[in-house]
Amino acid sequence: MDFTFTEDQIAFRDSVSRFLMTEAAPELLRDIWETESGRSPELWAKIAEQGLMGLSVPEADDGMGMADIDWALLLQEIGYYALPDAVTDTAYVAVGMLSALPQGHAARAYLSQIASGSCRVAVGHPTNGTVADAANTDVLLMAQATATGLELHLLTPDQCEITALKSIDSSRRLSKVSWTATEATRVLDGAQGQKVWDTAGERGALAAAAQMVGLAQRMLDLSVDYVAQRKQFDKVIGSFQAVQHHLADMVTKIEFAKPVLYRAFYALQHNEADLAVRISHAKLQCSEASWFASRNSLQVHGAMGYTWEVDLQMFMKRAWVLDAAWGDKAYHSARLTQGLLRSPNAPVGPGATFDRESACAREFSGQAAIKNIAEEVAA
Amino acid sequence: MDLTYTPAQKAFRTKVRAWLKDNVPKERLKSYDTREGFEQHRAWEALLAGAGYSAVMWPKDLGGSGCDLTEWLIFEEEYWAADAPARVNQNGILLLGSTIMEFGTPEQKARFLPRMARCDDMWAQGWSEPNAGSDMAAISSRATRQGDKFILNGQKIWSTRAIFADWVFGLFRSDPTSSRHHGLSYILVPLNTPGITVRPIRAINGREHFAEIFFDDVEVSAENLIGAEGKGWHVAMATAGFERGLLLRSPARYQRSAQKLVDLYLRNQADADRDHSIRDAVLRAWQGAEAYTLSSYHTVGRLNKGAQIGAEASTNKIVWSELDILINETAMRILGQRAELIDDEEANDWLEGFLFAQAGPIYAGSNEIQRNIIAQRMLGLPKS
Question: Are A287 and A212 in contact (CB under 8 A)?
Fold first, then answer.
């Protein structure tokens, strides 16, 4: 039993962090906002040089072949520096989808291009009403509902009608995508595609959750810096207990969201039976930490926090929008209800957190109470 | 990261589970805030100690099982899953026991620890004073050195179960010219010493849960000094943070409560679902207990790799105390009008839990103090 990261994982995280500190400084991100695409090809190329784009690409496809858990720390850094989300959709979610294709499948050719930084992928997952970065991508992965499940389709932008939408987060570039499913665009049928889409949804949810923790940490750090220099009544406001307690509560929420996040990445990597519960728990706990952090950060920044000039807004907005991405609170709460209150083998009670075959078998007292969750959610 | 238990850890779990199955009393023990219940609990502590389970992390020769932190977590999971009795001598074992383990002489260890493990000696805590609660450095009870003795004068308060206790451990001002956290000494005192008066205080549930202790020229041997004279604050703090952070409230306790809450909700679902925010609260209770558990395992992993717990221990205190309120408050909401009925056994368990939970944000260092510690020591903000 070892619930910690290796020295290598921490060292890689630190190097990515140092890189982003200079290459994704707030003033640079603000410049990128002003461009039409909202994206910087130079930054993208540098990220690829860091090895981030090929992190999960199998070694046979010119990548590093790393696993889900290796993203747990990196995605927090991506959140901390509010990096444009195309990186996570391409390098984590889409790579996971393409890597699931059988060896020799033509679409796997994109993997090595992603690793080298020469291919961007937008993912049209059904939990998201819009497609992120569709207007600035090389390939789109889209879902088509059928009686047997969600088919996986692969399209190029010229096969779609892409309408750009504006988000309150200026670095988020969303689109509405209209397209027609054909035999030529289909990569997987409904039965096979469903599994790939399901896992993609879990990865997307965890990517959002991890970024929200990073965002919460950034908002905390910005707030600490601010209250340590801002004076009122001849004292720095950071010396006032009311202000200190706002920040202390942020620390607590952040610190207790992190292990939940790590547990969920591990569950995903090992395809554990409880992974839906673990992932929804992570998404809810991380989103609560980041919303709480934005609320308290704004409060301690005073009116300055309500301005465009102060950087806080960049991170606050990202936290707000990621909350609804890849399954909103209602979606993840419903999954927790299903997994904890409607399941005879729910991971509830002492000994149910790890290694479930050794955990205490639980007598399920709620059999009589089981109702149809679909009915309940509909009501 | 490897989230599987080793064969040795699984074997330990199996052994503990089997022992608890055979030994946990079939009849519920009475409240340890009653004389009869206290004696029942004392007998249970002795039985636990016989198996090395009353203080599992202590070395075997001092009454423990020599467990590491992961085994401690496993033990606690089995203990709470088995609904074994609440631990009556916890303050002694966790606070004083750990302190003697770190600062005591070999003679003091041999003299006090095995008896503590068996609950032959029941220990009360003597830190708080009427004017030194959250501001604990304001301690004014005095210890005047006279040769190989100390003469104690002053008053302690909020000493849990002191009316049943045999000994008290506390901080006394041994340097009359000192102030704040300087010049304090950590001294152990038998409660039957002449000059000591113990006056019970009825708690919110009507029982004599804690007491005031008055010291009037009480003579105590200098052999009962733990650590160096005048360094009592350092001695007390060295273990308090660690205990508060990890050992004082094991996560399994909250997982078991959350599990019982889920079961209570499921048994009363038709009624409870009239207010869907109740179901949400049940889910939040599970999430909180699980997050606390995961955090504990994460901390243990870091400690195993040589890390130390510092001020972040204070985040734990806030989390478990607020979680305890959430769990019990939610149960009260599910029970509705039944919740107040003292003769309804199921409802009364939750009511007792609810009442006790109210104290959580106050004892072991108020949550406001914990937030100050987090802001000042973790975030580096200045004192006001």
Answer: yes
